[in-house]
Input
Amino acid sequence: MAKKKDSPLEAPAATATAVNGAAEVLRLPAEVLFADQLEALRQNETDTPPLSWKLAPRTVLAYIVGGKTLEANLGGKKQKIEVTRKFFGDTAIVERAIVTLASDRALLLIGDPGTGKSWLSEHLAAAICGNSTLAIQGTAGTTEEHIKYSWNIARVIAEGPNSSNLIPSPTMVAMRTGALLRFEEITRCVPDVQDALVSILSDKNIAIPELPDANTIFAKPGFNIIATANSRDQGVNDLSSALKRRFNYVHIPIVADKKTEIEIVRQRSADLLSRYEIPAAIEPAILELLATAFRELREGRTGEGVSIKSPSSTLSTAEAIGTAVDAVLHCRYFGDGKVTSGAVARNLVSSIVKEDPQDQAALKEYVSIVAKKRGVSDKHWQGFHDEAQKMLR
Output
């Protein structure tokens, strides 16, 4: 893994040091975790990247969709590096996102919870500017200071406002370095805070009137914004018309193909469990059962065409991944390590039945009718039915 320089605010998160085979940090940013793949792509680059980009658009796409094996010089040795797939959605979606970021318009990734918006945002930033850590998390408590800049109040009282007392926001750092800013859940911010972005996206600068010489920070080439929004929460704080005009919208749909969804669950659960040094040993039949249950409950229809009640809770691929991980952990710590359909049922119930009592009724109907019928000829569905029945009493 290539070493990276550490500099406050402008560098990716520091690389982890292995201690007893485990990293000192829980989660590495994409540009560190996939540094060998990014370096291999850079060494095999054939196109000219846009100004301030680390990789050309075609190479950024290759990094995200994967499927290549490249030869690269890493650590003084020739190695073959496999470029893995990071995003399993439509390639055309990724192409539109990359083209938008190469223009002056900002990018808004919008879709249901758990469709991979933040995941795609992180990998786009890692490949394009080499830093995915310049991010703002949108909440009801996000203020204009989080978007622009703030001050070291104690030093301002003692010395007055000057450039050394200024605390730059991730936005300002991205502008200074020609990098990408990631703005998560933008619609959760109040409208006044959202509108602070209008001048930034229009004028590409941030004025600092408190300074004696009225400094203005101008964005370097390469600066842009990738925002994400939950389509289920559009009513929270919808974007103003002025802000909407400055974004290109790219909708991220729920994975339509069952086989692809199973592969996503398998790969992402394995990645997450590797942090705990636990192999994600889920046999294909149980993975298929998990994906089938989620898809049928989400769509309100079984594979045989029978209509069923659909829970109100989010039944995204991300929830399926969480259920798979929890099932593996439960069997590892409280079983013999072998993942069973009963463990999947136990954790699926916890994922679906949260606040709405109607969700429990919908799941109980699915278990009593669909799972019970399939359990007559399939031991995995039988185990799923039996455990879910216990949990739903």
Notes: The first strand starts at residue 18 and ends at 19. The first helix runs from residue 30 to 33.
